[in-house]
Amino acid sequence: MENQSETNKPEPNGFMKFLNAPFGRFLLIGTITILLLAPLARVIFLIEERKDRAEAIKEEIRSEWGSDFLYQGLVLRIPLKTYKAGKRYHFFFPESEKTTLNVNASSKKRGIYHVPVFQSTNYTTAEFIPNLNDPTLDLSKAQIGLLALSETRISNMGKIEVNGKGFEIEQESIAEASPDKLFYATAPFTIDKSTTQISVNTGYTINGSGKIILKGFAKKSTYHMNSNWENPSFSGTSLPNPDSFELKKGFKSSWSVMNIAQNTKIGIDHSKPYGKLSEASVDFLEAIDQYQLNERTVKYAILVILLTFTVFYLIELIGKMSIHPIHYLMVGLSLILFYVILLSFSEQFGFARSYLAAGIGILSLLSWYAYSVLRSLKFALTILTAISILYGFLYVLVNLETYALIVGSMGLFVVLAAIMSFTKRLKV
Known about the structure:
Helices cover 42% and strands 26% of the residues. By secondary structure, the protein is α+β, with helices and mostly antiparallel strands. Strands 4, 5, 7, 8, 9, 12, 14, 16 and 17 form a 9-stranded mixed sheet that branches. Strands 3-2-6-11-10 form a 5-stranded antiparallel sheet, with no helix packed on it. A hairpin with a 3-residue loop joins strand 16 and strand 17 (251-258). The two termini are 34 Å apart.
């Protein structure tokens, strides 16, 4: 009776024979992979959409709290005696300037999004040596103040001390005929014509996010920065003094900058320096966020799908069994679901923990499905081991920057060698 049942079993038609043949299997796997490009493209679009939303929220927070802080330093402004053309000034820059910046970095949250911000409490001392012999200078209305861009958020500013005497701050809307500049200046005071040196010191607090750009107008500038930020990124034409940098629960660094072209004795008629100034910059933004890591991960999606399909196909050959095309499609969709779970979890819990959670979930699902389809614990464990190694390698790869290419190429070499080893004894 059993033999009769097997005899009555319908023979596979020509199309099914073609699909079960090696070339037909390759064609089937390739077709299913192409079909999976549509949901994969949707995942990529979803990552971009969430990233744009996060960037919009971050820009809102930065516009409210403060953005990049460009430090230009103190300046002495003396008006010229009245001309018919209107009010004009001469600006004198410091001979030397020392600034200490105590930067406290924190995080501002809005919903599930957060952005690093900082509050910098600064103390500046400066020495001016202006030549006041110009008869056109109105020495009875001199002012000393801090140059700043209009978007600078100064949350607190004390008096400016000039030769030991404190002067209250009078914020003006512009430093000169330039609407993008503010001039946090003292009330006008009188300078004696015989004055050869003016000593100034002041303290103030800046709210900001992004970068602190040190571009003082003094001939010689010295900066000392102390911060609790643990991932500083330095750039610009002037880097910190090598012996000054410390990284321990934050960082400490110092810069010494010379602007040789500055003529600090002779005033000029605008608040711009002579020539091109040296610039030091410290970035307080996160170098890599979860969206960048998600983007890096999904770039390897096709490779992960093809390698997973290869594992299933090798098991077909070794176990002399046939896996239905629908099974391949379900496996592919579960692999794409991994990226959706990773994205949604990483917005809440960070990338590392989300990758572990999403990986465990998808590996458990694939292991159960493989056992249900193949009816073999050995093959199910083989698939679990192979995909676990694949996901582990992928995690290492997406967290590397400098060595990502070489590690990826060596990893693919090892995978190809393993596949060649499994298939070397197969016969047509």
